[in-house]
Here is the input.
Amino acid sequence: MSPRRNRPKGAGEPSASSDAEPPGRYGGFQSSESWQGEEWSVRHVAGASAAGKRYRCPGCDQEIPSSLPHVVAWPEHSGVDERRHWHKACWNAKDRRASRVQRSRNAPRY
Here is the structure.
């Protein structure tokens, strides 16, 4: 026997903003945020859709392991070629800290 639900289905669930895209192919929703004086498209990616892929977070310069839920963000004016994959915590803390890694001139950025 399953436990009793205290609330009817759908009650108390947060609704997405009007400019947010509903969950879809990547398992998360897309919204728009303002950062550094420009609009950014932000998509939350479920870990299952990122299986077998690795990315480097520009916030902490650490690797995002395969199958870990994370955030993909890019400036709206530049398109998807400028997409960057961030840890959720790094994206939320982007105004409070920056990457302190010093790379040589010929080192790859990501």
